[in-house]
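In keeping with the milestone schedule agreed at the kick-off meeting, the structural modelling team has produced records for the first pair of proteins. Each record is given below as a sequence line and a structure-token line. The laboratory manager (R.T.) confirmed that both were archived under the project's standard naming scheme.
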Amino acid sequence: MAKDLSQPSSSDELIAASDGLASQEADGALRAALANAMVGMKKQYYGRGPTAAKAWLLDDYVFVALDGGLTRNEETLLEAGRTDLVRTYRLAFQEVMTDTATGAVEELTGRKVVSYHSQIVFDPTRTFEIFVLGPEA
């Protein structure tokens, strides 16, 4: 008779499967919250937010990638070949927003952000928010 692989065969396997699933669900909820926080920040302070966002967590790192979200004046500057000006403005503005961005990540993760970096690229437009977290309490 073939073993039913859809059912755990011991209590240890059941506990391991449950813990893994709970951990994955908690991680997924945190990743979604981080992505949503960065989208919300862009919408609130730029007046227009990204069209999509995704966050990843790995050890002491949070990485958020955001698609689109340029304002009409930034799009006009890009059409005129002024990527340098849009990038310079965006990066300067992100420096001003450091406390807001890192505060959201600290609140959501429960860990201090020890380093933060933001970058934007064009064609297609993507913004990357990178956070380095301090040690866990």
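The second protein of the pair:
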Amino acid sequence: MVGYTAGRWSPGELIARQAMRFVIAAVGRLKQGPERDLSERYRKRAADTGHGIGFRGVEIVEIRESKARETDKRIIEESIALASVIPEGAVTIVLDERGESLDSVGLTDRIRHWRDAGRPAAVFLIGGANGLGDSLRGRADLLLAFGSATWPHQLVRIMLLEQIYRTATLLAGHPYHRG
């Protein structure tokens, strides 16, 4: 464990020192309705389950869609806005249909590794309808895909929150995952 010296910190203090927060930064807003309700339900479950295992919570940052007419300019503006919310030292995970398809255990293993390495945050980026700039994709620690199908951004956010919740339950030893 990072920075642990026997007897120096209690287990609770050690977890607090290594607490990792999750940030989901997404272009666009979820309007009031069932998608927003389900998103909030999984966000709260993940945050509640994660407190005892070294997670500080789950924050949602909604980025305004660019009003630029040209696609390239929209991509650049939205990518800059997303990049501005990534804290120093954070793991950056970009949701991208060309990314790696990980099962729940594989994603959990990556997050466990980053948490145990003392990374302060895991930031998941969901781009707008036109995608993200190559420079933002290039600085990602992980390009993550939810299969080869095209998904609406609202559902991607819900599926991501469910996977974060599932990760928390796996790390906490709950039988949520039946694999």
